[in-house]
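Attaching the record inline, Q. Sequence:
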Amino acid sequence: MRKLFTTALALFTLLCLSTVAFAAAPIKIGALFAVTGPASFLGEPERNTAQMVVDEINKAGGVKGRKIELITYDTGGDATKAVQLANKLVKNDNVVAIIGPSTTGDSMAIIPVVEKAGIPLISCAAGSKITEPVKKWVFKTAQNDGLAVARIYEQLKKEKKTKVAILTVSDGFGSSGREQLKAQAKVHGIQIISDDTYGPKDTDMTAQLAKIRGSQAQAVICWGTNPGPAVVARNAKQLGLKIPLYMSHGVSSKKFIELAGDSAEGIRLPSGKVLVADLLPKTDRQKGSLLAFIKDYQNHYKAEGDHFGGHAWDAVMLLKGAIERGGDTPAGIRNALEATRNFAGIGGVFNFSPRDHAGLTKDAFTLVEVRKKDWVLVK
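Structure, as predicted:
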């Protein structure tokens, strides 16, 4: 009888401890992703990844014994809706931090909201202007488009190609990329001899590409997110354009290859290392995290973990570390984020500071090329 009582008491104590672990109120984190709409190829893997990581954190006991509650809303890639939802997260849901949005336009739109409210934001979008100049409450995980431009220009210079044509989408991401392409050209000895744009919903870029074909351009750089770049790839092949075609990191997933089909062959772009994780040397600091993320995502969603889901993985894990070090108040989280050093994530090795809320260098990028409907490293 005594043994039975002891066993029952032990089980009761264990149950009580389990309950106590999450007895305190959960730590509420907001998430804004473009799960539907044209940018869903960004938002869906981001939403999936964020939930996957939060579930795993909670399964392991939460953060300092407290559960993380992820409150996710779909912006549909609409900046006006993003602002409404950001206000909802701040005023109604009482979140202590927000991750996302998926796009540069949505991110820029909600910056005034989080800055006024004093809520840390970790954007998953790439535009350099999200964190340049530095905003007190705003950080990001996607590699800056300025770093992507530098990686492309360095490769062109290596191949002695100095005359380029740029074709950028007329949205927040495209305009930010265009600014960087123009600003860095002279520094890298690059001459932009054609500067054209296309609309986010355009379905034919033949006119712009025909103009480029008749120029002295030695390479084309297209800056945009799906589906536009895939249209550019197909139109370029239809026109028989022979010069190299570079894309931005805005299409660094298998989705681009699916959309562009055979026209993707030979296209190059700068990307986070997750696309080629298995090809990285064992000495690469990110390789362990990258392979674990890819396997984890595959197990959960029966699909490949990609560059974009990686932005959300980094955002959640950076928040976890910040809460562990700085507490669960918005100010404590912000201060701890800004003090983050040497965090080896999916997008790169992050080092935030009061002067840098993007935290990455050009080493976060590798140059990849499409070969036989897959990504390979450009040597």
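Residues 226 and 334 are 32 Å apart (CA to CA). The chain has two domains: 12-143+288-362, 146-271.

More tomorrow.
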